[in-house]
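Researcher: Sequence recovery benchmark, item below. Answer with residues only.
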């Protein structure tokens, strides 16, 4: 080989792993049991990114499997309305690494913070937000993926009103030869956004309608400024649903496979549905009609994402050419879901996923796995020191926690709206630390604790006591609740 060409190849190979110097951390923006999230700059592109350090990935095989599932799905589901993994740093050792560093596109907030910070969202906001969610969900569902944990904290947001769906740790791929209900635990989705059929094994087969219900609850929260069904337990959750929607029809109750749930609903006093115009006064009639379809008690009555996008509510905004479908995900990609994995099995599968972001190393790996055992350069150790330095020194001396970022109101001019609409840009940032700072630009609004992940929280986050995260369970242990939920949100 020409020595000049060989030298160029060597340079490319080693440059690829100069990862520690490529990303420069600016601030720590989130901490939790999963690890740490930092905002950084990619010096190669100048782009702002979020880097998530996930600690002790393999401490629990169930947590590691969730991380594997999530990074694999985000690699396969490339769509403008789904958060993107830009890079995963190469670990220094194939068989001994414990932490992983995942680089995401930087998002400024999440929909939970947007709803909390903005009590004057406009009808144009509602329409544009729901359109993006349904467009992303159409793509997800045509891949035969069910998200199963859609909620405002799992919807990332930017100041230009762009939304992206994240947190696929509880998602599942449905294959035609496997009934969707038999092998999946019922304990999915945060209770407030959980479809009725998930509140007690109601129906014999789960469908994408479980996600459509969650989208309906999110839409209602946008319209009303507060959660629609903030149940304190499963029974209270069903009571709140039936208080609004009325008692289910005998036909719907008869199709419920859970005997206790069937008896409970059959013995419930007869409730009449509350008119949505009463529950949501001053809301556009077309929006309410679509909401009623989305939160129909019986899953067969809910529209698909594609059908919802064709609703008259989106007239003038919907465009089939901008609402792509995709091919179903190959069964081979999720073969690991069908067998019991040991810790080393999951480590090898995650390592294989990481190599997708390192083409040269992937070639070496595919040529012969053992060849990748040599000591190759990795930026992780140096980058780990960047994180440690920032965590140790960030905010010292000011007596304040540096982790909670401020958010502000959405700029009205960033939403598709009539041209004569007057632009507003209200900065509602709280706290004296911002008192002497210049006004935020449009692109720096919506700052919050959440960045490229709904679990990117401060050291001592305020807990919504009624909202209880529901952990994923092994199928063989569906009667017991695990106390620890894997905290990776991509």
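Model:
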């Amino acid at each position: 080989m020409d020595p000049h060409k060989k030298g160029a190849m060597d340079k490319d190979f080693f440059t690829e792993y100069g990862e520690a110097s490529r990303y420069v951390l600016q601030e720590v923006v989130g901490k939790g049991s999963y690890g740490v999230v930092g905002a950084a700059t990619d010096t190669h592109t100048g782009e702002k990114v979020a880097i998530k350090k996930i600690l002790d990935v393999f401490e629990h095989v169930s947590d590691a499997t969730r991380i594997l599932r999530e990074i694999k799905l985000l690699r396969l589901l490339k769509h403008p309305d789904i958060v993107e993994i830009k890079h995963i740093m190469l670990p220094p050792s194939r068989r001994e690494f414990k932490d992983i560093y995942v680089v995401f596109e930087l998002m400024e907030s999440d929909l939970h913070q947007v709803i909390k910070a903005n009590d004057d969202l406009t009808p144009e906001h509602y329409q544009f937000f729901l359109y993006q969610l349904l467009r992303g969900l159409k793509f997800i569902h045509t891949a035969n993926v069910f998200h199963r944990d859609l909620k405002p904290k799992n919807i990332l947001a930017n100041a230009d009103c762009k939304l992206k769906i994240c947190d696929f740790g509880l998602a599942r791929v449905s294959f035609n030869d496997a009934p969707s209900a038999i092998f999946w635990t019922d304990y999915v989705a945060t209770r407030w956004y959980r479809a009725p059929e998930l509140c007690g094994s109601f129906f014999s087969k789960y469908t994408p309608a479980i996600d459509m219900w969650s989208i309906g609850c999110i839409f209602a929260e946008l319209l009303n400024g507060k959660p629609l069904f903030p149940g304190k337990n499963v029974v209270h959750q069903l009571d709140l649903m039936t208080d609004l929607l009325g008692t289910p029809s005998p036909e719907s109750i008869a199709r419920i496979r859970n005997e206790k749930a069937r008896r409970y609903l059959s013995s419930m006093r007869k409730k009449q549905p509350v008119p949505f115009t009463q529950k949501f006064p001053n809301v556009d009639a077309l929006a309410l009609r679509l909401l009623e379809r989305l939160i129909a008690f019986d899953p067969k009555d809910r529209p698909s994402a594609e059908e919802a996008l064709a609703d008259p509510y989106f007239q003038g905004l919907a465009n089939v050419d901008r609402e792509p479908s995709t091919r179903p995900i190959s069964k081979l990609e999720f073969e690991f879901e069908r067998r019991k994995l040991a810790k080393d099995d999951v480590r090898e599968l995650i390592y294989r996923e990481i190599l997708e972001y390192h083409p040269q190393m992937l070639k070496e790996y595919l040529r012969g796995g053992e060849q990748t055992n040599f000591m190759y350069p990795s930026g992780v150790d140096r980058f780990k020191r960047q994180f440690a330095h920032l965590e140790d020194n960030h905010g010292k001396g000011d007596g304040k926690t540096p982790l909670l970022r401020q958010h502000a109101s959405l700029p009205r001019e960033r939403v598709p709206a009539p041209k004569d609409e007057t632009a507003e840009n209200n900065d509602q940032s709280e706290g004296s630390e911002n008192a002497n700072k210049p006004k935020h630009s449009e692109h720096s609004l919506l700052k919050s604790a959440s960045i490229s992940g709904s679990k990117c929280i401060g050291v001592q986050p305020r807990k919504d006591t009624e909202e209880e995260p529901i952990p994923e369970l092994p199928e063989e242990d569906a009667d017991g609740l695990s106390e620890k939920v894997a905290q990776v949100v991509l």
